[in-house]
Amino acid sequence: MLFRSRLLGMSSAGLLAGACGGGGSSETTTAATSSGGSSSSSECSVTVSETEGPYPADGSNSSNGTLRNVLANSGVVRTDIRPSFGGVSSNVAAGLPVTLAIKLVNTNASCAPLAGYAIYVWHCTQSGQYSLYDLPNENYLRGVQVTDANGLATFTTIFPGCYSGRWPHIHFEIYPSIATATSYANKILTSQFALPSGTCTTVYNLASGYTSSRSNFLSISLSSDNVFGNNTSAQIAAMTPTFTGDTTNGYDAAATVGLAR
């Protein structure tokens, strides 16, 4: 299967033009060059902070009396986050494949790429469960990558499900280096990506394994979501990755995260 990494830039208002509400399997945004510059403007915006939620497994909370910190586990630095690792189990999370490219840029330096930072990504399964919490014997759909010279970190994962009460999303934390990406105490940003409406509709209606997501998604909106509901439309646009692909071959997703460094 061939996935294509597409890097994003941000417009002068910090928007990713292909925000939520699109109605197809491809929702696009302003493109960026691999060197980190935007094709439309040198300006970009700081990504807003959001809650890490109840399932971060970054050392900040416990589940069933056990402190959960996957960041301390050998093997968490990986590109493919679909399998459980470290001998926890041999299971692989089922779901429609997604390659997620995250570009980290400096909003104080005309969107220059930030190299050497660590990005921790986690999200739910296709049925809306979280490893180490709902599924205590799994640690899949969690992983860390270091940004390269172009500020880029890439993860191979699945399209997350939609569980009751939340808009479909992907969690992430930013750390200043891989050496510091061992505990929540060192993070410099926590936020979430909102998945685009049109792609969610397509995946949940056509891809296998997302039956519960179909009905849950019909009962939620961005305005009623308890995380994204208080964001402006510009912030939501900037927090929504581009998805290109289909339910046969999977999707490529790309997003830009801005830090004031």
Write the layout of secondary structure elements.
Blueprint: E1 58-63, E2 66-69, E3 97-106, E4 112-113, E5 118-122, E6 142-146, E7 152-158, E8 169-175, E9 189-194, H1 197-206, H2 211-218, H3 233-238, E10 242-246, E11 250-259
Parallel strand pairs: 3-11
Antiparallel strand pairs: 1-2, 3-4, 3-7, 5-6, 5-8, 8-9, 10-11
Helix pairs in contact: 1-2
Average of per-residue pLDDT values: 87
β-strand number: 11
Alpha carbon gap, first and last residue: 37 Å
Structural class of the helix and strand makeup? mainly beta
The H/E string reads EEEEEEEEEHHHEE
Describe the global form. Answer: globular
Helical segment count: 3
Quick summary:
By secondary structure, the protein is mainly β. It has 3 helices and 11 strands, in the order E-E-E-E-E-E-E-E-E-H-H-H-E-E.
Describe the structure.
- Strand 3 and strand 4 form a beta hairpin.
- Helix content is 9%, strand content 26%.
- The longest helix has 10 residues.
- The N terminus is likely disordered.
- The protein has 261 residues and is mainly beta.
- It is built from three helices and eleven strands, in the order βββββββββαααββ.
- The chain is globular.
Brief descriptors of the model:
3 helices, 261 residues, mainly beta, four-stranded antiparallel beta sheet, 9% helix, disordered N terminus, single chain, five-stranded mixed beta sheet
